[in-house]
Amino acid sequence: MNPLSGRALVVEDDHSWQQILSEILTDMGLAVDVVGTCDEASAALRAAPHRVAVVDLSLTVSDHHNQDGLKVLDAIRRQDPDCTPVLLTGFATVELAVSAITGHGAHTCLRKETFRRSEFRELIRRAATTAPVAARPNGPHAAAPRRPEAEALAAGSPPETASQVLIVEDDAGWRSILAELLAESGHRPRLCSSYGEALGLLLREKFALAVVDLSLASSAAPADNLDGYRVLASSRSAGVPTIVVSGVASTADVEHVYAEYGIFAYFEKQAFDRAAFRNTVAETLAADQPLTGELATLTPREIEVLKMLAQGLTNKEIATALVITTNTVKRHLKSIFTKLNVNTRAAAAAIASSSGLG
Predict the structure, then answer these.
(1) How far apart are CA 159 and CA 310, in angstroms?
(2) Which residue has the higher pLDDT, 292 or 138?
(3) Mean pLDDT calculated for residue range 135-148
């Protein structure tokens, strides 16, 4: 499809959603202005005209009853009547959606927990080509005409596929985002939000991959939340390769989960990249081939280190490539040598090469 042109406005106080929406709209060809409050939105509307606006209902993180997004919708009708607004929220009821559409001029209302990138892109394309509000009968303050997509909040089901991927994430928006990316890549996501749910699924079902958030709000000890780590231990015990997607971890935490739980990759939510995530999922599944003999005792992280060793990389080069310390590399190599019953790098590299890992 041809790219869109013009500007888009994102009014959202959550940094992760700011990034996600901005990335999608930018990919579609729009110049994006991102703000987090009602006053900032009003200033952005005065500064430049916008083709579409994506507005969150609640613009105060600590107050889920906040409805400043409706004030923004009203400001759009007054200040930029040619702009088509979409309400995107995690707190919408059907009654609120109808009110936003008929009383505040929203084009439609979407739920964050059922957010689908493909549906959102198509909706934005339709919204961007809709007749301006000012051109509607009875002027800019008339209620928007009813459209099929405005009759209900967006929903959708991922397609069934042979490979099943476990997603353990307590944030509904991120669950939906990860599920759609996996479904678009031909996988079948299985969603859960707590350690208890994840453990039950790992015991009952077979998974090709697990995608896990480290901090799960369902923990019985919020101040000392270890539920994500418990999931990593369970997925490792079940032999399921795992990718971490999390927003709360220090450098030490990242190194710890690589070394202790043998995860394949770690993504920070604050810098999440869709293409990189898709590629890493493919690499993880491709690397998860059955190994025999002593190689079968190695963790996924040790396999990565062994591959780089076989390619002739030094400890420092391996550390740089895997974003770990050289001491961590040395610990991995010591474990690898013990498991392969060798004493030299050359002997370990020879085993890797003869097994097709070099």
Answers:
(1) 40
(2) 292
(3) 37
